[in-house]
Amino acid sequence: MAGDDPKEALFLCALQNAVKHGGVPQAGAVIGMVMGAHPELRSRAKEVSALAKEAIAEVAKLSPEERLATLQTRAPEMIAAMSEKHEKKKVLPELEGAEKGVVMRFAPNPSGPLHIGHARAAALNDAYVKQYGGRYILRIEDTDPKRVDPEAYQTVQEDIRWLGLGITEVVTQSDRLSIYYDLCKQLIEKGGAYVCTCDNEQFKELKQNKTACPCRGNSALKNLELWQKMLDHTFREGEASVRIKTDLSHPDPAMRDFPAFRILDAPSHPKVKAHVYPLMNFSVVADDHLLGVTHVIRGKDHIANTRRQKFIYDHFGWQQPVYRHYGRMGIEGVVLSTSQMRAGIKEGLYSGWDDIRLGTLRALARRGILPEAVKNAMIAIGIGDVDISFSWDNLYAENKKLVDPTANRYFFVPDPVEAKIEGAPAHTAHALLHPSDEARGTRTLEFTGTALIPKAELVSGTAMLRLKDLFNVKIAWNGETPTFSYGGDSLADARAAKARIIQWLPAQAIVPCTLITQEGEVKGACEPAVKGEAGKVVQFERVGFVKIDAVDASGVRAYFTHK
Ligand code: GLU
């Protein structure tokens, strides 16, 4: 067991590191690995650090061949673990026709801030552009006035900046209405589209029966005339639309002569005053083509659109991009519906778009999830077409990989109880800011007689607790009331008594701290030094990683990130 023989554990870790990376490992890396696997050694940091240096010196004496042979005989499982990790590294599958570079796009509707569901398309397209080189277009799809929130033009851009996408250009569809009108005219001239003035219900019935409506047979000239009447307001909402000529006998009725343009009499659009708006399938095809998009990664819910869009490509004689449709991703535990979020914010149920009960990227940022973790999690999910449910645990694991090496450690005592400890000497604890990076230094906690400890640790009957980096505390119980006395410094005694090693604070030097979790608030206290960590993710030891959200005269507010 490493706790009893840290020497062996350190030697094997140093050896594994040397075999994996070549050369001689850094002490910090070896200590980090050993402490990670054997947390009980953390209280023996000095001793471990000295032993690590010895272990590294021993490894340095061996040739590369001797290192491998030694690891093979003494810890073959460590070699297996190395290759497993290697195999697990996720790479996205190749895309055909991408060798010479790609043009891809992320095309959100500006209906509200981006949420975790959007992140998949955003991250996968981004990763492919990075993999193959090329352009990455952000296309704001705002041709449905009902799905436009004026503020979202900015929030979407902010969210994208936060995600760190490699966007090379931004296109807003409402700026391009004249382009779509022009293409519509061309398509009418080619006989690929017609203006339909049928009553909607009547058209539906004909369509169900695979029958052409009377408008379908109009000449191009007649259609151009009607199209002009759409544009010049002669027709009102519901009186005319442009339809794409498809296959009236197509087995899927949704493919039959679907609409491409519609009239809106009183649209409230923050950017344009128009009477005729393209529908998504038309504007998407126009832009994918005109912007030179080569590959489209989007959800399975767009498969029917891809089929519809093929008719438009064929009429124009354009080549379709390469598509990949990934499976649906169920996301539980947070609110994602934009309308539900908006209503909740209005009612005061949520504090804003970054309320941590919501699934927005801003809510994730607020609680300390890093954008790289979001992207890595999405790339790990990949472009498979199987429906899945999103795993928060995987996202947290990705995030932990990033924050664990950087987050400073502090004590936070939830629901604190004052423990006056009889017979305890005044004592200064030096607790590592990071268990595997001694160079970062220590925090100083000055014990002068009374400690704050978490109420939850005072389970009736508990005979001993060890205050981390300090000493042992004996507890005597008078009914439900505990009294505390000094229990010596020995870690071995604490172990023998199966005492929990808990976080604590010197009662005279604390800052009030509120920890906000998705389930509610936890009131407590933390070390004063936490005030210097505003905006950063730290670890509250034994509680989890938290983001220090705000620091003011009344104390610290932190959001729970994950364990
Ligand atoms: N704006 C569409 C959406 O957010 C995306 C269009 C597309 O991928 O073609 O669903």
UniProtKB/TrEMBL annotation:
InterPro entries linked: aa-tRNA-synth_I_CS (IPR001412), Gln/Glu-tRNA_Ligase (IPR050132), Glu-tRNA-synth_arc/euk (IPR004526), Glu/Gln-tRNA-synth (IPR000924), Glu/Gln-tRNA-synth_Ib_cat-dom (IPR020058), Glu/Gln-tRNA-synth_Ib_codon-bd (IPR020059), Rbsml_bL25/Gln-tRNA_synth_N (IPR020056), Ribosomal_bL25/Gln-tRNA_synth (IPR011035)
Compartments where located: Cytoplasm
UniProt catalytic activity: tRNA(Glu) + L-glutamate + ATP = L-glutamyl-tRNA(Glu) + AMP + diphosphate
Glutamyl/glutaminyl-tRNA synthetase class Ib anti-codon binding domain boundaries: 407-476
Domain tRNA synthetases class I (E and Q) anti-codon binding: 501-549
Alphabetical UniProt keywords: Aminoacyl-tRNA synthetase, ATP-binding, Cytoplasm, Ligase, Nucleotide-binding, Protein biosynthesis
Pfam families: tRNA-synt_1c (PF00749), tRNA-synt_1c_C (PF03950), tRNA-synt_1c_C2 (PF20974)
Gene Ontology MF terms: ATP binding; glutamate-tRNA ligase activity
Domain Glutamyl/glutaminyl-tRNA synthetase class Ib catalytic: 102-401
Organism domain of life: Archaea
Positions occupied by motif 'HIGH' region: 108-118
GO biological processes: amide biosynthetic process; glutamyl-tRNA aminoacylation
Any single GO CC term annotated in Swiss-Prot or TrEMBL for this entry: cytosol
Listed EC numbers: 6.1.1.17
Database matches in PANTHER family: GLUTAMATE--TRNA LIGASE, GLUTAMINE-TRNA LIGASE
Family: Belongs to the class-I aminoacyl-tRNA synthetase family. Glutamate--tRNA ligase type 2 subfamily.
Function per UniProt: Catalyzes the attachment of glutamate to tRNA(Glu) in a two-step reaction: glutamate is first activated by ATP to form Glu-AMP and then transferred to the acceptor end of tRNA(Glu).
HAMAP family in alphabetical order: Glu_tRNA_synth_type2
NCBIfam families in the record: gltX_arch, PRK04156.1
Full protein name: Glutamate--tRNA ligase
Species, as recorded: Methanoregula formicica (strain DSM 22288 / NBRC 105244 / SMSP)
Lineage: Archaea, Methanobacteriati, Methanobacteriota, Stenosarchaea group, Methanomicrobia
